[in-house]
Structure formats: structure tokens, C-alpha cells
Amino acid sequence: MSGMSEMSAVWHPPADLVRRYATGGLDPVQVMSVEAHLARCGGCRTALPYEPEWLAESWERIEDVVDRPWPGLGVRVLCRFGVPEHVAGLLSATPSLSRAWLVAVISVLGFAVGSARVTSGDPDALLAFLVVAPVLPVAGVAMAYGRAVDPAYEMQAATPLSGSRLFLLRAVAVLTVALGLTAGATLLFPGPLGASAAWLLPALALSLGMLVLSGHLPPLLAGSLLAAGWFGAVLICDGVLHDRFLPFQPAAQGLYGVAVLVMLPLVCLRHRRLAPGEHQ
Amino acid sequence: MTVEVRGLAKRFGRTTVLDNVDLRVGPGVTGLLGPNGAGKTTLLRCLATTLAPDAGEISAFGLDPARHEQRTALRRRLGYLPQDPGFYPHFTVFELLDYVAILKELTDRSRRHREIRRVLAEVELADRARTKVRKLSGGMKQRLALAQTLIADPDLLVLDEPTVGLDPEQRMRFRALASRLGESRTVLLSTHQTEDVAALCERVIVLTAGRVVFDGTPEELAGVAAGRVWISDTPPAASTLFWRTADGRYRTLGECPPSGETVAPAIEDGYLLLLGATSANAGEGAA
């Protein structure tokens, strides 16, 4: 036994065997044998031929897996919904997707639903919900991008993805979240679904109007103008025409529908020009 | 030439910030000197494609930033350090650089992270990768801002006051980094520090009131004051800019009297004379 130990201690795979191992020319049993020796013998491991670039890249990949910081909650949630990792990383900086903003939107919607439930479907509560709901996505897009709302705007404005591409990406994400949350609140609203969903077409029309205007104005200004216009129209309907629900009647809904049909192709055609506040 | 500017003009309201600026910048490190309000930042913002001029033309690598597609192409070759780089304070250092790397179209995660580690090592912030940006000191934030300009190895670096907030040792390290970058790239930096210009710039442009008043080598800028810097034992009588030096003598900028002892001028002397500082009150100049 001691003779065998001495033999295994001094035995090293011949150069030809090592070369065939490195080039993948050995059968599985020989591979296991050589690897068992390499695991114990530093000299043979060092002598094993290898490609430095491949090894460096492999180590880098391993280092990245081990040393990579854990992504933030927002990125993890977005990835869970199938958003590509780099897109999730981009969206994580959107001011109007921040935790504070989402809490504010959910609070507004929760208050609207709560007050409607407490007052058992009071028309005033419904009206307040219908008036405010279309402005939420517009406000989100207005706060999503631009010099006035983004602390790192100047730094990112000189990168190739800034401008229309980043704005559209953020706008779509914000619209999806805002419309989704508002739709969820609508389902919880007491009374017929048709009445409480009357905010949808005005919201779409205002959101598309926001995108169209942002090609000419900074988004914060565009959003402010649209919100002021919307609230002004609602006040006129109530104070002058004496019909509080006129903005949500079928005729008005038809107008919103036409506006959506007109603006949608405009946004698609001019999407490269939607560079809000940029290069001004 | 990497960058060519012709007849550039920019106004904010009634204030003319850039007035018919012409300049050409090639590979190497070029310094942009000028007093506050001279138009340095506006000029650099125009070159960095974040601000459109009112008139004039800019061409960088033959690309016209006024055209959308060419602007995007130029941004792929550009690294920009703004004067006041904003950050997302809740991001970590690594997350912020990751974000900028994605904006620079590095979508492959492994490649992106490799690039982030490289730039963190360049600015010696590797040990702060997981630190929240809001917890960094001013100097560290400036180094972080510098790191984001280096992502994707740009050919043109536009740096607006890169040494602000850096301590002397960090400034030395920045100079070493900038001069190394300038060996193969075009680096245009603005600064108030004439020492930075003397230490690392091959060329210096002086901007005042929105106009280029000097364009040459640092030695040529110092040469503007040749024969007009002199030492005396008593304060000069004329209304010139002077200060008392550590050895108790008076160093004066201005016409040298017959009894004066002229000394070799520094870049700062030439710069001050260009700005017309010799008309400043002598008492104000004494430190």
C-alpha cells in the first residue's frame, strides 16, 4: 500500500495526455482521472494550457454573479412582470414611478372609492372621481421627464437614449400604471360600471394630447395646460351649461373617441419628435 | 479637427451669453478659461447637445447636432460632465452608473457591469459601489460624475469644471487621468484654476462676455504678460493690480517702471491682463 502511495504521489499525467485533455480528446473515464489529479496538483494545474482571454472572461462572469449588487425592489418587480432587465433599470429612475408618487395616486383613488362607498354611491363622489381620474395619467407623464422634474436631467440629456426614446418609454410605463390603478379603483366603485368607467376616454384623449403637446412644450407645462383646460371645461359645464355630468355624456364621449383616433396616428408618426424640453 | 464651431450665438432673454463664437478643437486636452458669466457653461452645453444655439453651426466628428439622427450618433461618442450634475440620491453608486450605462446603450448586463467596474477603478470609487449617493461627500460625488462620463469610452469628453470639490490629491489624480485620456481623445474642460490649465492643457481658450479673446498655448497666454510682471520693495504708486508676497515684496501686474525688476509671468498673469484686471484698484488687489 505504501508503495502505491509513493507511486501516486510522484505520478503526473504525461504532456501528451494533458494536451489531449485540454483539447477535449479524452474519453470520460480518462477525463475524470486527469481531473482528479489536477484537483490535488498545483504544478499540473499551472502547466495546463489555457486561453487567457477566455479565462479572464469566465472569471469576470463569475465575479459579476458574486459581486453584482442586488437590484432594487422596483427593478425586481418589473422583471417579474417580464420587463427586460435593462428596460426595468431605465424605468427605475422615473420620478412618477417612485414610491411616493404611487402612494399619492393610490391614496387619491382610495379616498374616492372610500367616500363613494361611505355615501352609498352619492353622485357628488362619482363626479369627483370622474373629474380627477383623467388627470392622474396626465400628471404622471408630466412628472416623468424633463429638466424641471428630473434631478439628473442634464447628465442624461447628453446620452443617446435620452429625448424621445426615454420620454416615450417612461410615458408608456406611467400611463400603464396610472390607467391600471384607476381601472382597479373603478371596479371597486359602487354602482353601475358604465358610469364609473366614464373617465376612460377622456383620460386617453388627454394622455394622447399630452404626448402631442410634448413635442412642442416641456411636459410639465403641457400637462399643466391640459389639466387647466380639463378643469375649466368641467366648470363651464357646471356653471354655464348647468349640467355637471355633460363631460361624461355619450356625445362628449364620442368627441373624446374622435380625438383619440386623430391623435394616435399623430403620436406614432411623430414619435421621434417627442423630445420634450430637450435641446431648447 | 474633432469639433468646429462657427458663429455660435445664444441669448437668454435680453442677455447675450455667446456672441459669434468661432473655435476649433482637436485631440488632446483643451482648457476653457473665463470669469463667471463668460459663457463657458453655455458653450459646453451647446457642444454636449443639451442646449440648442440660437445661431451658428457646430460640427463634431463631422456630425451636426441640430439634426436628430446625427445628434444621437454624436452622443454615442460623447461623455459630458455638467457643471451641476444632479443625482438620484436613493440610488447606490453602482445603480447610478448602471442607469447611465443603459442610457449609453450598453444593454448586455455582464458587459455593462464590467464597464462600471472599470470606471469605478479609474476614479477610485470601487469600494463605494454599494454606498447610497446621498451619503457621498462632495468630492466623491464629483468623482462619480466624472465616472459616468467615462462609460463606453467616449472619443469626446466635455467637462464643465471637473476639479470643483476635489482636494489637492484628487486634483492631481484627475490631472493624471485627464492627460492620459487626452493622449487618444479630445478633452475640452472649463475651469477657474489656471494651475489646472498649466498642468495639463496643450491649448487654452479664454472666453469673456461671450467672446473668444484668446486661443493659443498656455505658454502664449503667459507671454501676454511678458515684461509686465515686476517685483518691488514698496507698493507701486500707479493704479495697478499687485499683492504682497511671502517674502514681503510686492508683485505687480502692469507697466514696469525703470526701477522695477521684471519676473517671468505665469498663465494667471496673462489671463488677468486679458481680462483687464490691471484697471482694478490696487488696494483691492492686496491680499
TrEMBL record, chain A:
Keywords: Membrane, Transcription, Transcription regulation, Transmembrane, Transmembrane helix. The chain crosses the membrane at residues 100-119, 125-146, 167-189, 195-213, 220-241, 253-269. InterPro entries: Anti_sigma_zinc_sf, Znf_put. The keyword Transcription applies. Residues 19-45 form the Putative zinc-finger domain. Gene3D superfamilies: Anti-sigma factor, zinc-finger domain. It holds the Pfam family zf-HC2. This is Putative zinc-finger domain-containing protein.
UniProtKB/TrEMBL annotation, chain B:
Belongs to the ABC transporter superfamily. Keywords: ATP-binding, Nucleotide-binding, Transport. Residues 3-234 form the ABC transporter domain. Pfam families: ABC_tran (PF00005). One of its GO terms (molecular function) is ATP hydrolysis activity. It comes from Sphaerimonospora thailandensis. It comes from the Bacteria. This is ABC transporter ATP-binding protein.
